[in-house]
Automatic annotation (TrEMBL):
Residue stretches making up the Pseudouridine synthase II N-terminal domain: 31-183
Gene Ontology MF terms in the entry: RNA binding; tRNA pseudouridine(55) synthase activity
Protein name stated in the entry: tRNA pseudouridine synthase B
InterPro entries in the record: PsdUridine_synth_cat_dom_sf, PsdUridine_synth_N, PUA-like_sf, PUA_sf, tRNA_psdUridine_synth_TruB, tRNA_sdUridine_synth_fam1_C, TruB_C
Protein function: Responsible for synthesis of pseudouridine from uracil-55 in the psi GC loop of transfer RNAs.
Record domain tRNA pseudouridylate synthase B C-terminal: where: 184-242
Positions of the tRNA pseudouridine synthase II TruB subfamily 1 C-terminal domain: 246-306
Length: 312
C-alpha cells in the first residue's frame, strides 16, 4: 500500500493511551497507523490521564456514542493538602488554605467513613477546566483567560469507591462511576471532606469502560511495531460497542426491509421489549445490520444501520 492511501476499514480499537497525549492526538496517531479513512473516539481522556480509550474506525463510528453513558472505572492517586488550578498535576499547585500538608494524619476508619459518604447518587459542580459549553464556548477557554463562570451542580452516581493504598498525604483509590463524573472534582471534594483543605490528582488511569477492560487494550507503540496484518486482528467488530443492547435476529425478507428503511412487525424476541428500547439487529447468518428501535405499535424500526456490502 502506497503512503497516504486510506483504507475503508471498520472496527473498534481498544487503545491504552499514554500520558501527555490528548485524546485527539491519540486518535489521529491511531488513524495514521491503520491508514484508516474514517475514525472517531467514544469520549475523551484528559491529556495527563492514561488508560482505556476506545477508537472507532469506519462503520463503527456510527455507534461511538453508545459508550458515552456507560459506567467507568478509574485508578486515581490523590495528593492531600494541596490544590491545583486544573484539579490535576498539569495546573499550578499551591498549599490548601489553612492546612499544613506535612501534618496530614488520617486514620483508616475516617478514610473509610468519608469515602462511603460519597457512594450513591449525589451532586458535583463541574470544574472550570472542562469541555462543558457556556454561551457556545467550552468552559476551559474562560478558565485559561482567568474568567470564572458560575456552574450549577449536576447529579452524578458513584457506584463504588475504595482505597488501594494510603501513605503520608497520598491516597491511591479506585472509583467506579456513572457518566458525567469528574474524578478531578471528586478528588478536591474528598480532600475537603477529609479536613485537608482539598486535594488534586497526581495520576489517573481509566481501567474499565462499559464491558471493556484495560488488559484488552493496545498501546500506540505496540501497534506501530506490528505488521499491518497483525494490527487488523486487534480490531473488535462494530457491535462490540453495543453489548448492553438486546439482540433481535430477523429473516432475509425482514432484513432487506430494514436495510431499505422500512419498519417490520415485532416477533417473539422483541415482544417482551418496551417501546423505545434500542436493539441490535442481525440476519439469520448472524451478520450485524445495525441498531433498531421498538415502536409503540410493536414494530422494529431501523435506527442506525451499517453498510452491508453483500446481498442478503
Amino acid at each position: 500500500m502506497s503512503a497516504g492511501t486510506k483504507r475503508h476499514i471498520s472496527g473498534v480499537l481498544l487503545l491504552d493511551k499514554t500520558s501527555g497525549f490528548s485524546s485527539n492526538q491519540a486518535l489521529q496517531t491511531a488513524k495514521r497507523i491503520f491508514s484508516a479513512h474514517k475514525a472517531g473516539h467514544t469520549g475523551t481522556l484528559d491529556p495527563m490521564a492514561t488508560g482505556l480509550l476506545p477508537i472507532c474506525f469506519g462503520e463503527a463510528t456510527k455507534f461511538s456514542s453508545a459508550l458515552l453513558g456507560a459506567d467507568k472505572t478509574y485508578e486515581a492517586t490523590l495528593r492531600l493538602g494541596y490544590m491545583s488550578t486544573t484539579g490535576d498535576a498539569e495546573g499550578k499547585i499551591s498549599i490548601a488554605v489553612g492546612v499544613e500538608p506535612q501534618c496530614v494524619d488520617l486514620t483508616w476508619e475516617k478514610l473509610q467513613t468519608v469515602l462511603k459518604s460519597f457512594i450513591g447518587v449525589t451532586t458535583q459542580v463541574p470544574p472550570m477546566y472542562s469541555a462543558i459549553k457556556h454561551h457556545g464556548k467550552p468552559l476551559y477557554t474562560f478558565a485559561r483567560a482567568g474568567v470564572e463562570i458560575e456552574r450549577q451542580p449536576r447529579e452524578i452516581t458513584i457506584h463504588d469507591l475504595s482505597i488501594e493504598a494510603y501513605q503520608g498525604n497520598e491516597i491511591r483509590m479506585r472509583v467506579t462511576c456513572g457518566s458525567g463524573t469528574y474524578v478531578r472534582t471528586l478528588a478536591e471534594d474528598l480532600g475537603r471532606a477529609l479536613g485537608c483543605g482539598g486535594a488534586y490528582l497526581t495520576a489517573l488511569c481509566r481501567s474499565a469502560l462499559g464491558g471493556f477492560n484495560l488488559p484488552q487494550a493496545h498501546t500506540l507503540t505496540a501497534l506501530e511495531a506490528m505488521p499491518p496484518s497483525q494490527r487488523d486482528s486487534c480490531l473488535l467488530p462494530a457491535d462490540s460497542l453495543l453489548g448492553s443492547f438486546p439482540a433481535v435476529i430477523v429473516d432475509s425478507a425482514a432484513a432487506l426491509s430494514l436495510l431499505q428503511g422500512r419498519a417490520i412487525p415485532s416477533h417473539p424476541a422483541g415482544e417482551s421489549l418496551s417501546p423505545g428500547r434500542q436493539v441490535r439487529l442481525y440476519d439469520k447468518g448472524q451478520r450485524f445490520l445495525g441498531l433498531g428501535e421498538i415502536s409503540t405499535e410493536g414494530y422494529v424500526s431501523p435506527k442506525r444501520l451499517i453498510r452491508v456490502e453483500h446481498s442478503l
